[in-house]
Automatic annotation (TrEMBL):
Keyword Cell membrane: no
Entry-linked Gene3D superfamilies: P-loop containing nucleotide triphosphate hydrolases
Domain EngB-type G: 35-219
Name of protein: Probable GTP-binding protein EngB
Coiled-coil ranges per UniProt: none
InterPro entries: G_ENGB_dom (IPR030393), GTP-bd (IPR006073), GTP-bd_ribosome_bio_YsxC (IPR019987), P-loop_NTPase (IPR027417)
Family annotation (SUPFAM superfamilies): P-loop containing nucleoside triphosphate hydrolases
Names of required cofactors: Mg(2+)
Biological role stated in the UniProt entry: Necessary for normal cell division and for the maintenance of normal septation.
Similarity annotation: Belongs to the TRAFAC class TrmE-Era-EngA-EngB-Septin-like GTPase superfamily. EngB GTPase family.
């Protein structure tokens, strides 16, 4: 039987329905069985992952948001509603909100636990199709971002850069920022081409991100 092909123009179909929280995973042994394709959202603490996920799925409060960096402490799994129970079919896609990295104020042992969980997941999940690495548009790629990109390159894990909070910078600066970011990742072997620029507040760039996710889904 030929392998399934990611659907084109499936973004509206995938996101025109409710999504639900499946489970929080504090350690690798609690991961759900490998099934649908997974995409993960990674980024520094307080980069706006949860806010972007809520905006992307059109559901306020689905992913927990907080002004306190380090609030997300587990791998949080989300899927479209209506799967499981009487419907044995696998969902077309699972979305994973990962703990933020680079938050120095948390206890060191807690930071080490989060970091080990994140890195183990990135290296060892066969159904993980792409990691979307979120970068705050106001700050660009920092040293701890570079460390994560290096790990992803070493693991040959496809990743794509998503700029967040572009509403916080001047509009004329966005093209220059995208160009500079593209230049920084140009020679990275696992970097997927194309920088996505988004704003959760203004809903800017969400259609492009939905389209990218839709192409990774299976129908």
């Amino acid at each position: 039987m030929p392998p399934s092909v990611p659907a084109r123009n499936s973004g509206p179909k995938l996101f025109g329905q409710p999504w639900v929280f499946v489970r929080g995973v504090p350690a690798m042994k609690f991961l759900p069985s490998e099934g649908p394709p997974e995409v993960a959202f990674a980024g520094r603490s307080n980069v706006g992952k949860s806010s972007l996920i809520n905006a992307l799925l059109g559901q306020k409060g689905l992913a927990r948001t907080s002004n306190t960096p380090g609030r997300t402490q587990e791998l949080n799994f989300f899927v479209p509603d209506g799967f499981g129970g009487d419907n044995p079919a696998l969902p077309p896609l699972a979305l994973v909100d990962m703990p933020g990295y680079g938050y120095a104020r948390a206890p060191k042992e807690k930071v080490d636990e989060w970091t080990e969980l994140v890195f183990d997941y990135l290296r060892g999940r066969a159904t993980l199709k792409r990691v979307f690495v979120l970068i705050d548009a106001r700050h660009g790629i920092k040293a701890n971002d570079e460390e994560v990109l290096k790990l992803l390159d070493k693991a040959a894990m496809s990743y794509q850069i998503v700029l967040t909070k572009i509403d916080k910078i001047k509009p004329f600066g966005i093209p220059k920022l995208i160009e500079a970011t593209e230049e920084k990742i140009r020679k990275r072997p696992a970097a997927f081409p194309g920088i996505l620029a988004t704003s959760s507040e203004k809903r800017a760039g969400l259609d492009d991100l939905q389209e990218a996710l839709g192409r990774l889904a299976e129908y």
